[in-house]
Amino acid sequence: MAETIEVTGLRKRYGDVRAVDGVTFGVEEGEFFGILGPNGAGKTTILEIVEGLRQADEGGVSVLGESPWPRNPRLLPRIGVQLQASSFFERLTAREQLQTFGSLYGVPANKADEMLELVGLTDKADVRVERLSGGQAQRLSIACALVHDPELVFLDEPTAALDPQARRNLWDVLRQINTEGRTIVLTTHYMDEAEVLCDRVAIMDAGQILRLGPPAQLVRGLDSPARISVASGVLTVEDARRLPQADEAVDDGVSLTISTRDPSAVVAAMAAKDALTGVQIHGATLEDVFLDLTGRAYRA
After folding, report:
1. pLDDT on residue 52
2. Which one-letter DSSP state was computed for residue 193?
3. Same domain, 61 and 181
4. Within its chain, how far is the Cα of 1 from the centroid?
């Protein structure tokens, strides 16, 4: 497939800090691409360079066959951008805000109500933007990024500040617009979000891409044991540790958890002992991959 975004040898420094340090990747047309990393990894800087909001020190960037820098007016109608921190026109209602954004691209005023419905803000249409909650403002920001039907959408932590229901509803919206053929580039701190939505992810730290690929492929490449949990008391810890292929067993008084790299052998042995009450099997996740690559130290 054609590449919508091509990034080659990208570098950006701020004094002695290498915010982006030799990054190369491509995003295919129609792909849902995620950029993951701890705070300060360089995710937002990369987005801002690709969007044409910031100039790179070195490297090449092509977006939809065009250079985004200097600010390219030919690209503006073709891309939608939701920034990490959004600013709205003061004293406008949610509907008026969308109508104003849309008017910059020649979008009919009635498109605003369609977008409000899409992000679940129909009942807030006549509420001024400064009176919206943080989550509602976040959803309005996403609607503004989509109001002109862009073919490429950049979303910088779009579900931050959203409650679980709004977050899952937004996932449905993003899946829908991606299914319609739009290319989406997403940054997020939610690993489950990236695992569910993204075709491929790039995991970054210290300005570099550490691993890139489909989430399931990255998870399969991690040498991590599966965890099998059953109700506490079904087996003793000693009996659990004697099961074939069991590596370790811990009972916290609620659940007995067994670590193993061969869960089928352990489950079969537990079934033979009629010890599968409340059984749950947990494999590695994208979060495990992320922590394996970036570590567990606190980040500012």
Report:
1. 95
2. H
3. yes
4. 22
Q: What are the tokens at 63?
A: 């977006």
101 & 188 share domain:
yes
CATH of the domain at 209: 3.40.50.300
**How does pLDDT run across 111-139, given as a tens digit for each residue?**
999 999 999 899 999 999 999 988 888 88
Alpha helices in 180-262 (DSSP H): 191-197, 215-220, 237-241
Number of structural domains found in the chain? 2
Residue 197 tokens, joined: 């939505």
- The helix/strand/coil state of 8 is strand
User: Is 76 found in the same domain as 23?
Assistant: yes
List, for residues 22-70, the tens digit of each pLDDT value: 999 999 999 999 999 998 999 999 999 999 999 999 999 999 999 999 9
Specify the pTM: 0.88
What's the confidence (pLDDT) of residue 300? Answer: 57
Predicted pLDDT of residue 127: 96
Token representation of residue 72: 């390219």
Does residue 248 share a domain with residue 233? yes
Asked whether residue 289 is assigned to any structural domain, the reply reads no
Residue corresponding to tokens 């891309």 = 79
Q: Is residue 300 part of a domain?
A: no
pLDDT digits (tens, 9 = 90+) for 81-91: 998 777 888 89
Q: So what's the pLDDT on residue 53?
A: 93
Q: Which domain holds residue 258?
A: 226-283
193/250 same-domain check: no
| Half-sphere exposure for 64 (CA within 13 Å, toward CB) | 21
d(CA 141, CA 122) in angstroms, rounded, equals 14
DSSP 61: E
Cis, peptide link before residue 70, omega less than 30° from 0? yes
**Could you say which DSSP state residue 149 is in?**
-
In a domain, 99, yes or no: yes
Joined together, the tokens standing for residue 189 give 């701190």
